[in-house]
Every structure is written in structure tokens, then in C-alpha cells.
Amino acid sequence: MDTNNPLIEKNILITGASSGIGKSLAINLSKFGANVIMLSKNEKALDSVYDEIKEKYNTEPMIIKCDLTDLNEIKSQEITDIIGENYSRLDAIIHNAAILEKMSNIENYDLVTWEKVLKVNLTSAFILSKYLISLMKSALVPRIIFTTSSVGRNAKAFWGAYSVSKAGINALSEILSDELETISNMKVFNFDPKATQTSMRSLAFPAEDRDSQKKPDSLIEYYLWMLSEKSNSSKEIYIEFGQSLKN
Predict the structure, then answer these.
(1) Are 40 and 65 in contact (CB under 8 A)?
(2) From first to last of its 247 residues, what are the pLDDT tens digits of the chain?
(3) How many helices (H) and strands (E) does the chain have?
(4) What is the largest CA-CA distance in the chain?
(5) Which end of the chain has the least Cβ crowding within 10 Å, N or C?
(6) What's the gap between Cα 122 and its chain centre?
């Protein structure tokens, strides 16, 4: 393996790849040789990331325009077919896409927003994993990486559907890890990036000083570890920014 490009020829799907952590991952993983499959509803923003990757790196990125609020079994199969037609296999899925929408107590939380947040943050991760696992069976270091939050493990007032969705992601990651442990070499991780400079963080904490937060690029070492053979022997599902990574 090229040590300068440790992800050379690996094919990695990133949801929510048009901005924030997802955009940073798309660019940085391309830098290390990965062919990134970028999924988002914002095609214009995806085009911009795609052009930057093609200009800087010798990889084969792909754009999949998809609004996760409309995702169903038929569209999930179509996404699987598109990836299967363009790549020999899928090495990793990074479930990064998430929305907050609003901070509200439960008494005033409307059902439309509740269902939208759960659809984007939780249901999409379930249904994409369900279909895409079939493309990962020939991968040497297959990975499914979810994105969690502290409010998924310790729920707090006003976090509503977002907190519930992350609690669901925690359960889903544990279920998949347990189901796949004895039948494949696939590893499942659930990463908590902690406070990071994103638009969602600004919405949740509008009075917070953005400049005091770390930028998404600072997370890359954790993703590189999770995606590499270095994490093969790890028994942990939950990884959080700031913890020591064991080789």
C-alpha cells in the first residue's frame, strides 16, 4: 500500500457530503487515495466538491443526488445498483448526514419535523446499510461508520427528535456489529466528533464562539484509523474525538 495514499483504490460512500464534516471527509479521504461516493440533496454544492477533488487528486469520485427524506426501498436499490455498476465493490459507508431542524420541548414539537429528522438521521442509515452491505462482502477492510452525539447517550431537554435519532443510531450500530461479528470481517464504529465548527452546531448553540471550535479537518485522523487495518483488533464500537487510538 502507498503510505502516502493509504486508502488507494478504496471506494467509500459519504452521506451529507456537500458541507461540513461530510465535505471535509470527501476532500481529505480523496487526498489519501479513496474514490469517494458523495451523497447529498445539494447537487450544486456536490458539483463544487467534485470539481475540487478532480482538480487536485487522481481518484474517481462520484455524485449521487438524493434527498434522504424521500429515500425508500426502491431508491435504495437504485443507489446500490449505481454504485455496483461503477465500482468493483464498496469498502466503507460513512453515515454522516443529519439534521437538527429545531430546538423545542416535546409539548410543542410538531409531528412533521419529528418524522423528517428521524427519516434523515436514522431511517436512511438503516435502509442504506441494509442494501449496501451486499456490495461490501469482497472488501478486505469493510467498515460501516455511524455518527453519534452525546445527546444520544444522555438525552437532554429541547433536543427532541435529534436526540432520539442518535439514540436509535447507537442501537442500530450495536445491532449491526453483533449481527456481522461472526459472519464477516466487517467492523462497525459509531463516532462522536464532539463540538465541531458546522452549521448544525451554530443552530444548536447560536451564542457560541465559532472560532473556538475545532474545524472538521481535525477529525480526519480518527476516520483514517477506523477505515484502516489498525482498527481490526478493536473491540470498541464507540469512538469519540479526544480519545487515544490503539494500533
Answers:
(1) yes
(2) 455 678 999 999 999 999 999 999 999 999 999 999 999 999 999 999 999 999 999 999 999 999 999 999 999 999 999 999 999 999 999 999 999 999 999 999 999 999 999 999 999 999 999 999 999 999 999 999 999 999 999 899 999 999 999 999 999 999 999 999 877 789 999 999 987 766 666 665 666 666 777 889 999 999 999 999 999 999 999 999 999 887 6
(3) 9, 7
(4) 55
(5) C
(6) 11
Output b/e per residue, 180-210; b: 16+ Cβ within 10 A: beeeeebbbbbbbbeebbbebbeebeeeeee
Write the burial class of residue 135 (CB in 10 Å: 0-12 exposed, 13-18 middle, 19+ buried).
buried
pTM (two decimals): 0.93
CA distance 14 to 220: 13
Distances from the Cα of 59 to the Cα of 53, 55, 80, angstroms = 8, 10, 20
Residue 32 CA to residue 225 CA, distance in Å, equals 12
Give the strands of the sheet with 35-40, arranged side by side. Answer: 62-65, 35-40, 11-15, 92-94, 143-147, 187-192, 238-240
Q: CA distances (Å), 159 to each of 15, 17, 43, 166, 233, in order?
A: 22, 24, 29, 10, 35
- The string of DSSP codes covering 11-37 is EEEEESTTSHHHHHHHHHHHHTT-EEE
Q: Is 112 helix (H, G, I), strand (E, B) or coil?
A: helix
